[in-house]
Write a structure and sequence with these properties.
By secondary structure, the protein is of the alpha/beta class. The protein contains 9 helices and 11 strands. Helix 3 links the parallel strand 4 and strand 5 (87-90). Helix 1 runs parallel beside helix 9, helix 5 (117-126) runs parallel beside helix 6 (143-151) and helix 7 runs parallel beside helix 8 (209-217). The termini are close together.
Length: 248
């Protein structure tokens, strides 16, 4: 069956030259964006109940833009002035660049990993005498505490924000040719909103092995998967699939 409509379970890209917009134009398909999950901040009162005293930490480990936003939100709510001496360990360049929203980059001690948390670990180990705070979501990748414990550093995790399932009830009678997912949480949201969901002719596109497993665990069929050596991005995988089926 030809593809005419796609629903991407993420917010609409803010950049004008997003590959999704190019895909839509070139392949003549309609692409809608709708986040199946969203992030909500944990109130500072609940963070105090986690026995978190921001003044006791000399370094912050930041794994995402959400971690950056919610660390500074909590600091503001607690009326904690982040000292200029605070060290920031950012998982990637994207996170470090985003940090500039809150601090003057050239005047702070910022250490940047390449991409994965494991790649950040040598920098953390180099400063093992620091007291590290990890502002995290309620669902933390198992890799993170494993790496930190192996480094034998003084660190503490605090839940600063939570992943929450979005209300999709307005989509109940809307159908798409392809649904695109990027995390197991997206699949959880699908079935929370539509417990009786039947795949039928709907194609499902997924990014990452954990998402593939989540789809298959629900008895669904994976039609499009990324990343692969040939299609390292989701848009490339979609383009390849649509090019084939729409020519038939």
């Amino acid at each position: 069956m030809k593809v005419k409509t796609i629903l991407v379970s993420q917010p609409e890209p803010k950049i004008e030259n997003s590959p999704y917009f190019d895909l839509s134009e070139r392949q003549k398909v309609k692409i809608d964006f709708r986040p199946f999950i969203h992030v909500e901040g944990v109130p500072s009162k609940e963070i105090r109940q986690q026995k978190i005293d921001l003044g006791k930490f000399t370094a912050i480990i930041l794994t995402s833009r959400n971690a950056v936003d919610h660390f500074f939100r909590v600091a503001d709510e607690m009326r904690f002035k982040v000292p200029d001496s605070m060290k920031y360990f950012c998982q990637s360049e994207a996170v470090a660049y985003y940090l500039q929203k809150y601090v003057v980059y050239r005047k702070r001690k910022i250490y940047v990993g390449k991409r994965t948390f494991t790649e950040l670990s040598p920098l953390i180990k180099k400063y093992k005498d620091e007291s590290f705070l990890l502002p995290a979501a309620d669902k933390l990748k198992a890799e993170v505490p494993e790496v930190l414990n192996a480094l034998d550093v003084k660190w503490k995790e605090a839940v600063f924000y939570k992943t929450v399932i979005s209300d999709l009830s307005d989509l109940e009678n809307v159908t798409y040719d392809i649904l695109v997912f990027f995390s197991p949480s997206g699949i959880d949201s699908l079935f929370k909103n539509f417990p009786d969901f039947q795949q039928k002719d709907t194609r499902i596109a997924v990014f990452g092995n954990t998402t593939i497993k989540a789809v298959e665990a629900k008895g669904l069929r994976v039609d499009i998967a990324a990343p692969t050596p040939e299609t390292p991005s989701m848009t490339m995988a979609l383009k390849k699939y649509i090019t084939i089926v729409n020519k038939k």
